[in-house]
Amino acid sequence: QVQLVESGGGLVQAGGSLRLSCAASGRAFVRYAMGWFRQAPGKEREFVARIRWSGGSTDYADSVKGRFTMSRDNAKNTVYLQMNSLKPEDTAVYYCAASTYSGSLYSITPEMYDYWGQGTQVTVSS
Q1: How do residues 58-73 score in pLDDT, each as one tens digit?
Q2: For position 94, what pLDDT does the model report?
């Protein structure tokens, strides 16, 4: 069993920063990528950022590019999402996900991810 546990969400004013963490535990598994997604009320879950596990290259949604940075700590089996210059439209539940599918290297759809965390709320006030 693989478990992903997010932490670091909270309430912040516009322009502020938060750092989300996602710790993986359980049985060892081969992952092609890990990603961050978010879902606002009444909206579909959307891609935020991805890190390819081999090589560590990252990709970002246009809406967060230049403001968010995804990174990892292999020793801690943890990925992070540093969020700067937060905007009210960044308000959502943020989910960490891991993919054992090679297709996740090329696709950013949630369907490519088979392990998910429980989510952490991020609220940005104006």
Answers
A1: 999 999 999 999 999 9
A2: 98
Q: Which residue has the tokens 């997010």?
A: 6
Rg (CA), the chain: 14
Give yes or no for a contact between 110 and 97, defined as CB atoms under 8 angstroms apart: yes
Which tokens in the block code for residue 33?
């990528």
| Pairing state between β 46-52 and 33-39 | antiparallel
Strand ranges across the sheet with 68-73: 2-7, 18-26, 78-83, 68-73
DSSP, res 105 = G
Look up residue 125 and give its two tokens.
């006030």
Measured CA to CA, the distance from residue 9 to residue 21 in angstroms comes to 9
Task: Please report, for residues 5, 27, 66, 117, the alpha-carbon distance to residue 2 in angstroms, rounded to integers and kept in the order given.
Answer: 10, 6, 31, 10
Average pLDDT, the chain: 95
Q: Would you place residue 42 in the very low, low, confident or very high pLDDT band (cuts 50, 70, 90)?
A: very high
